[in-house]
Structures are given as structure tokens and as C-alpha cells.
Amino acid sequence: MGGARLRLCYFFSVSLSKPSISMSPVGEVTWGQDAGITCSISTKHLGGTFILQHTSGSFRKTQTSSTNSATFNILQVNFGNEGSYKCQYQIRVSSRDFSSPLSDSVRLSVAVSLLKPSISMSPVGEVTWGQDAGITCSISTQHLGGTFILQQTSGSFRKTQTSSTNSATFNILQVNFGNEGSYKCQYQIRVSSRDFSSPLSDSVRLSVAVPLQQPSISLASPNGGLVWGPEGAEVTRGYSFVFTCSIFSHYPGGEFSLISSGSGLTNTKQAFTGSASFDFPVAEYEHLGDYSCVYEVTLSARKFTSTMTASIPVIIKMSLLPLVSSVAVVGPLLLLLVLVVVCLVCKRKRRADPPVALAQSQLAVRLSNDYDNNKYEDQDDVYENVNPTDTWKKLKEEAGRAEEEDSDDYEEPEYCNGYVPEGEKETSDDEAVHEIVTQLLDEPTLDIYGEHEDIYQNF
């Protein structure tokens, strides 16, 4: 052993503890979001390399760090990034590599988080029956190309619509009462063979209304029996009049009611092309009153009534035609009656005049005879004593005395068995007038120059 050297070998090792691992964000990571996994170790041997690896896949990343930690960023996480991850630390000391044990695992879970969609309706508020309505669903998301679902909360109504944008509009054509109710929408998307659904949106209510305009009312008289006065429409009794009710409406069918406040009657007619006419062929006093129109329509077993029109007062007035006709007929008869009465009075007066005329005639004959007998005997006296004034007075006095004597001596002639000749028959004025009036009323016309010609012959 004299020349032999004793060689001593020193063996050393680097002890590395198990790294710790953490992930941000904690919990589920939204699809497309960035995630970070941090590995750290407690050691004095810095400058080593951190290794992140997928426990069930081929994913493996390394990162050298001058510190005791390193963060691995996974951009736009997708479902391929899901799984468990572990990390490890490696260091080279004196040309020798040392590795730490594997860390605990951390799980990366990817989720597609969809926000609650928003919902709106057009038109806003009530929708008129038969009108089109639109309900729009929209969502704020990066996952486009999904499907919007519109459903009625209290019914079986459900519609779907795929959209390449973040919104979709559902059109409901010709809305009726079956479409009334509350609606909600939802968004669904399929990502990496997995389906994701958004929460339900808030609700929007579709209410159906049937607004009816106030009808209009008009009055006319086809045969001209209508006059508008200060108190309303004046219709002549016996004439016809027509009320017309009309309305502008796009609802099918419907009916008009004409209401009279005077008689309390209500007439109803179907509305054709938005109007209806109510005919009154003969105006009577019972038609007096205020008239107004109401429109009513039935839609989906519901009745809707318009407001009442302003009323039109109707006054029935008496016709002047019968009065004018009576005057036209009775006028000539009255005139003829007056003429007949005048004729009777004149006739009676002339029947009383013959005794006076007879006396005057006898006096004239007597004077003529006296004059003829004495004209030759007393011719001289006559010419000497003649005074025209005295002569006229004497003649007048003689005529008066002769009239009185003849009147006293006049006796009514007597006839056998009450017979009176036709020319001397007399009647009282009342009896004569009564007889003539009876004839006038019995006969349509009176020929005063024919049948009663004897009246004038006796004048």
C-alpha cells in the first residue's frame, strides 16, 4: 500500500419540495375566456424551469423563471382545454438535473355562460284585433348562430328561429284573442357538441283591443218631406224618411242599432260595407223623438260596442195638403151659395114690388084719361095754371094714395086643395138656403145657368 493513494468520493443531492398549483379564475372558466395556472415552489435554487402538463392528455408547457413561480396562460379557453393539470419544477446544479415531485392537480372546467336575453314588442301597448305584432328577442354573447325560442307562459305557443346575429323577431300575423298573454324568450347554442341554454327573459304581455270609432248618423226624406228647423228635423206627417248609420271599420260583419228615445224602440240591421239604412215609409206622430246610432261587432265570441252618436231630434208636423184641398173645394161652393142667397133675396123683394107698380100704372092711366077728357074743355086754364113743380107734387101724392088703397084691397088668391101654381110658389129664406146647400153637397157641380135658369127669368 506504500505508493497507493486513498481517493475519497463525496456524493450530494438537491432536495426540492412539491410545488403548489393554482388557477385563475377560480371555478368554471367561460368558454372563450382566458385562464391562468400558476406554479410556485419554495426553494433556494432559483432559475429553474416549471413544467405544466395535462394529466390525461398530451398538453405540456414549460417556462423558465428567475423567481420561485411561473404562470401559464391559456388563451380563449375551449372544451379542449378542460381537464386536470399538474406542475413540476426542475433545476440544474453542478451539471446535474434535479426535479421536484409533481404538484397536486387543479381542474379546469369550461362553461358556456349565456346571459338573460332581452325582449320587446311592437307596437308597444295594446295591439288592435287583426293587426300584425312583432316580438324581438336579443342577447349579448359571443356565441352567435344559436336559436331563439319564443314561448307563451300560459299556453302551448312555441316558436323557434335561428339567427346569425344576436337577435331575432317573431311576427304574429293578424292578432286575435287567442294570441293574448305573456311571452318569454330563450337562447340556445351548441358548442363542441354540447348544448347550452340561456336563462328565460323577462316577460312581455300582448293585449288585444278592439277600438271602435263613433258612428255617424244622417237623415233624409226621399219625397221632400224634411225641413231642418231650430229644434231639429221636421218631417211632414205621411211622408217617408230614412236614417243612415255608417262607420269606418276593418272588422268583418257587425250591426247597427237605431235607438229612439221618444218611442223607446230599437231597430237593428246588419252592417254592409260599413253602413245600414232604416226606412220609415210613412211618418206618423208615434215616430217623434231623438234618434241615435250604435255599432256592435262580435269577435272571437266577444262583443264590442261603439260609443253612441249624437242624437237627431225628429218632429212630426201636420200636412197642409188636406187643408189646401178643402179650401180649394169648399171655396167655390161658398161663393156659389152667397150668389144663390143674393138671388133669393132679390126675388122676394121683387115679389113685394108689383102692388106699388100696379098703383103707379093705374094712376098714370087715370091721369092720362082725365087729361084727354079735359084737354079741349079747359085748354085755356090748363095753359094758364100749369106749374111743373106743383104738378109733380100732386102726381106723387096721388100715386101714394093709390098705393095705399090697392094694398088694402089686395087679397091672396085661393086655390083648390092647396095647389099653388109653379110661378107663385114661395118658400122661406131658411128653407131655400137649406135646399140649395143640400143640393150643393149632394152634387159635385152646380149648373146655375141650366137647371136653375128660372131664377133669373123671374127677375
UniProtKB/TrEMBL annotation:
SMART domains: IG (SM00409). The keyword Hydrolase does not apply. It comes from the Eukaryota. The chain crosses the membrane at residues 320-345. Keywords: Disulfide bond, Immunoglobulin domain, Membrane, Transmembrane, Transmembrane helix. GO terms for biological process: cell surface receptor signaling pathway; immune response-regulating signaling pathway. Residues 403-414 have a biased composition (Acidic residues). Residues 1-99, 215-309 form the Ig-like domain. InterPro entries: Ig-like_dom, Ig-like_dom_sf, Ig-like_fold, Ig-like_Receptors_ImmuneReg, Ig_sub, Immunoglobulin_dom. Residues 422-431 have a biased composition (Basic and acidic residues). Residues 397-431 are annotated as: Disordered. This is Ig-like domain-containing protein. It comes from Cyclopterus lumpus (Lumpsucker).
